[in-house]
Specification:
By secondary structure, the protein is an all-alpha fold. The chain has one domain. It has ten helices and no strands. Helix 7 runs antiparallel to helix 8. The chain is globular, with a radius of gyration of 18 Å.
Amino acid sequence: MDYQTLKLQHRAEREQWPEALSVRVHRALSWLQRAELCEQDEDAEFLFLWIAFNAAYANDIRSEHPPEAKAFADFLYQLQRFDRDKQLEALVWQQFSGPIRVLLDNPYVFQPFWECQKQPGCTDGWKWSFDKAQTRVSRALSQRDTVKILRVVFSRIYTLRNQLTHGGATWQGKLNREAIRDSVALMRAFVPVMLSIMMASPNQDWGQLHYPVLA
């Protein structure tokens, strides 16, 4: 599933959709198309995919703020509810089960690790939080809880996103290359799946636009 396939569907069906959904999908597809044009530049592709994701979701997912975390959880549960072909399950448990586990085991995309570095004398204070988070991850993995795994994965990817957008990493730097590569691969598949689910259920409430189109 790619930009061209989804765009053809959008053009064919958008007149019957609510305006908010049509605009969300239109914006997201424009950034997905740009991401697909990136060659040999995983950092740029990562950022364009994140914008595509956020254009469709249009909310912040900072895990340290419960209202946003709950809103993102609700969004994922809604996606899962209308995922008639079980595409999300296939992504998590089949296509990307290995990269997801690697990403979840990586402390460098765990925000408390970096918060600890800012505190004088804090060397391993983050480990307790990380171990506790890993226990929850293990439980979700054993229960095959797709939504919980995606929630944690995207909170980790959000930390990586912050590193790039706030200048906390080097372009094409070696230190975060594996995390970038795995995140790009996952989002390259997730964003089209997310859009296809939303487009297949246009009469559901996918939220109002934060930045509406003004004449």
